[in-house]
TrEMBL record:
This is Aminopeptidase N. Its cofactor is Zn(2+). GO terms for molecular function: alanyl aminopeptidase activity; metallopeptidase activity; zinc ion binding. Residues 445-533 form the Peptidase M1 alanyl aminopeptidase Ig-like fold domain. It comes from Polynucleobacter victoriensis. It holds the Pfam family DUF3458. Residues 538-856 form the Peptidase M1 alanyl aminopeptidase C-terminal domain.
Length: 856
């Protein structure tokens, strides 16, 4: 395998000024004529032109109109020698979209054409300098049979449409903004749109469209509303306006990622566009809103200012995730809503990113090397990347951060730049030295901060000592610049302070106190670190009851739960009564209560122990949850009745919070053995007017094997059999169902049967993920068994998917990342499953990299 290094970056020997594509769209054989105006870069005399190209049939090459026959062609490249300094290069090639199961480049989904070019898909469409620092303007002519492909879309503005005879027609699109090839897109087929026109900040008219298959037109309104809200938010918060006259979103059912920010023509997985109350849950509504925002925000952070090379991916992704998180927090409509969003984001970080940062694929948010760039669209680059941007806002303040953003756009609009350029803009706009801070970009691993307190004759001291575990290729770490928000509770004069931890160890001293204060530190999770802090339970109880930082209130509960789970210790009476008071507190947001009573995830608990015994952790966690359910049974019944949302469905944060707490209460009632739960859940299932309540009831019936489970599962399938996204939920629920402790292999048996279900289709990424990935990655209790079967199931599916869709396969391949941490009776089976994959012929670079790093 080839390893690419960040340090090997070289400027391109040629640039492409403009591209004129003429594409005849035929599913079996699409012909692409690509005319490029080329220019040799200064200092690259005598260098050949090496174009990227894969999976194409080369038809002809012309330089200034003359056919060229002397070139070198490999499966990955086309090399031309002896070229002038300025010339027109015209290349004709063909590809086979209907055979393309990788969903990279040009492919067919349900009879329509779509593209996905990030990161390196454009090279499957035509020969090109397929790297983000080559930016060109594009004119695109699409030709197709009008009956089969009535709608023809590409980036930018539609400038011409024509009938061509023989049933063919064409459309010409022009994108005025120079862009890298990864932002190219085309769509062709039978689609319909809802559209709106709005006026942007400066008074210009903009046409907004959401394109879907006609059967889905009634599920587009929420995406459109989210788009309009995003446009407004970016104007208000960052002064950034939509630059095109037309902005389109298109939904497709076969898609590897969530969505893609192609200039003016965003292409979305249906999962993140389509929503109506009967088929989409509150979580789906929230996801649509945040993904629409994310892709829209890329128009400035990613498209106007793009990445120099793929090692800089977090430049656009970390920043854009930060922006979408802030947007969603603002949409919650209250301070407590903002805290709820923050807690949700931190849960994802801890459940998925912390394990990544501690495993064989650990990498800095700006990696130094990769074998397959597709493997680096990770929670580290995205979610930790966002935390690193957030810390800069914490250090500089909101206004300072805005000044930095303004300077970033002033300096770099229209350019392909680096993470260093971003930090330089932040530093220069605020005259703040961020040199040490930049270690967050270069060092992998989750830093740990040890907290030690003392209180002697009225003087309180807290000593903070940082360290960071070794990660692959990085044995020694230098100290990070860690912004820690803290407050001393119990000292009436104390307000929230920012402490900048920059040394290995530093001490904060506060004299003149009458009693020892309670430390509330890393408030609002100001830094993505692990705190090693043996705070006494009595103090955690105080934080749980009184902390004015909602995040740390939640955190205190998590810590107390975690101690019970890991030490096999019952929740004590004082804690239970504090929890009861919180559950009953009318002043608190129901969404916050739902999060507070949700125990730490198993994958996060794994990170707290040196040897993972997954079944022991699963059972201990269930025991604590059972205790919470039983001790508060009356309160859960009260909560269930109190948080009904009668009337028509509204997706707003307040109503969604009530539904989430109500459904948690239903789970708790089931867990407590409350005998009427079966009937209550069945009644809720039958009377629900929205997916959250219908699915919430079904999940309780299924997870607790209540008597109405089977009938409702069948009914659910029957009701929604023509709605792919809901059938995905039907598969996922069964793949993630809670195990029966008496029969721990029943879930696998069910998954094997579902694998043969007529609705299962491994080629559709959403469907594959709803069954295979869901079982292997989201059901640790069922998946991690001390035997060979489940791991063998995993290995066979990684191999099967490897030949169909390497990206989907490589995600699944990550399921055993942490195998070396597991107890020996698990490890032995995990290792042979990994080795079984590694011995296969024809592994994609995607899967090979993941497996090889795991085994190393
Ligand atoms: N489509 C992915 C995202 O928006 C990659 N750019 O994050
Ligand atoms: Zn993105």
């Amino acid at each position: 395998p080839v390893t690419f290094l960040r340090s090997d970056y070289k400027e391109p020997a040629f640039t492409i000024k403009s591209v004129d594509l003429d594409i005849a769209l035929i599913p079996a054989r699409t012909i692409v004529v690509n005319r490029m105006m080329m220019q040799r870069s200064a200092g690259s005399q005598n260098q050949p032109l090496v174009l990227h190209g894969e999976e194409q049939e080369l038809v002809s090459v012309r330089v200034n109109g003359e056919i060229i026959r002397e070139y070198e062609l490999t499966p990955q490249s086309l090399t031309l020698h002896n070229l002038p300094d300025n010339f027109e290069l015209s290349i004709t090639s063909a590809n086979a979209p209907e055979k393309n199961t990788t969903l990279m480049g040009l492919y067919v989904s349900n009879g329509n054409f779509f593209t996905q070019c990030e990161a390196e898909g454009f090279r499957r469409i035509t020969y090109f300098l397929d790297r983000p620092d080559v930016m060109a303007t594009y004119q695109v002519t699409l030709r197709a049979l009008k009956n089969d492909f009535p709608v023809l879309l590409s980036n930018g503005n539609l400038i011409k449409q024509e009938e061509l005879g023989n049933g063919w027609h064409s459309a010409v699109w022009q994108d005025p903004f120079p862009k890298p090839s990864y932002l190219f897109a085309l769509v062709a087929g039978k689609l319909q749109a809802i559209q709106r026109t709005i006026k942007s900040q400066s008074g210009k008219e903009k046409l907004l469209q959401v394109w879907v298959e006609s059967k889905d037109l009634d599920k587009t309104e929420h995406a459109m509303d989210s788009l309009i809200a995003s446009i407004k938010w970016d104007e208000e918060r960052f002064g950034l306006e939509l630059d095109l006259d037309r902005f389109m979103i298109v939904a497709v059912g076969d898609f590897n990622m969530g969505a893609m920010e192609n200039k003016g023509l965003n292409i979305f997985n249906t999962k993140f566009v389509l929503a109506k109350p009967e088929t989409a849950s509150d979580v789906d509504y929230g996801n649509v809103e945040s993904v629409v925002a994310h892709e829209y925000f890329h128009n400035w952070t990613g498209n106007r200012v793009t990445c120099r090379d793929w090692f800089q991916l977090s430049l656009k992704e970390g920043l854009t995730v930060f922006r979408d998180q802030e947007f969603s927090a603002d949409q919650m409509g209250s301070e407590s809503g903002r805290a709820v969003k923050r807690i949700e984001d931190v849960r994802v970080l801890r459940q998925v990113q912390f394990p990544e940062d501690a495993g064989p694929m650990a990498h800095p948010i700006r990696p130094d090397s990769y074998q397959e760039i597709n493997n680096f669209y990770t929670v580290t680059v995205y979610e930790k990347g966002s935390e690193v941007v957030r810390m800069q806002q914490t250090l500089l303040g909101r206004e300072g951060f805005r000044k930095g953003m303004d300077l970033y756009f002033k300096r770099h609009d229209g350019q392909a730049v680096t993470c260093d350029d971003f930090v330089a803009a932040m530093a220069d706009a605020n005259q703040k030295d961020l040199t040490q801070f930049k270690r967050w970009y270069s060092q992998a691993g989750t830093p740990r901060v040890k907290v030690e307190e003392s209180f002697v004759s009225g003087t309180y001291q807290v000593t903070l000592t940082q360290s960071c575990p070794a990660t692959p290729g990085q044995d020694k770490k230098e100290p990070f610049h860690i912004p820690l928000l803290y407050r001393l509770i119990g000292d009436s004069a104390s307000s929230e302070q920012l402490f900048e931890l920059t040394e290995s160890s530093q001490t904060i001293t506060v004299p003149g106190l009458s009693k020892k204060p309670v430390l509330s530190i890393n408030r609002n999770f100001s830094a993505p670190v692990v705190l090693d802090f043996e705070q006494p339970e009595s103090e955690l109880l105080i934080l749980l009851k009184e902390d004015d930082d909602a995040f740390n209130r939640w955190e205190a509960a998590q810590k107390l739960f975690m101690r019970s789970i890991l030490n096999g210790k019952a929740l004590d009476a004082e804690l239970v009564s504090a929890l009861r008071a919180i559950l009953r507190d009318a002043a608190l947001d129901p969404a916050f209560k739902d999060l507070l009573f949700t125990l730490p995830a198993e994958s996060y608990l794994y990170e707290q122990v040196s040897v993972i015994d997954p079944q022991a952790i699963h059972q201990a966690r269930r025991q604590v949850r059972g205790q919470l359910a039983t001790a508060l049974q009356d309160d859960w019944l009260w909560a269930y009745q109190e948080h009904q949302t009668p009337g028509s469905y509204k997706p707003d944060a307040k109503s969604a919070g009530k539904r989430s707490l109500k459904n948690l209460a239903l789970n708790m009632l089931a867990d407590s053995g409350y005998t009427k739960t079966d009937d209550i859940a069945f009644a809720q299932y039958q009377s629900a007017n929205n997916m959250t309540d219908q699915y919430g009831a079904l999940a309780v019936l299924v997870n607790f094997s209540l008597s109405h489970a089977q009938a409702c599962l069948s009914n659910f399938h029957e009701q929604f059999k023509s709605d792919a996204l809901v059938i995905d939920k039907w598969f996922a629920l069964q793949a993630t169902r809670q195990i029966d402790l008496q029969d721990t292999s029943a879930v696998l048996t069910n998954v094997l049967a579902l694998r043969k279900h007529p609705d299962f289709n491994i080629k559709n990424p959403n469907r594959a993920r709803s069954l295979i990935h869901a079982f292997c990655m989201n059901n640790p209790g069922a998946f991690h068994q001390p035997s060979a079967e489940t791991y063998q199931f995993w290995a066979e599916h990684v191999i099967e998917l490897n030949h169909i869709n390497p990206q989907v396969a490589a995600r699944l391949a990550r399921a055993l990342d942490r195998w070396k941490q597991f107890a020996p009776n698990y490890q032995v089976h995990m290792k042979s499953a990994l080795e079984f994959i590694s011995k296969q012929m024809n592994l994609s670079s995607d899967v090979a990299e993941v497996i090889q790093k795991a085994l190393n």
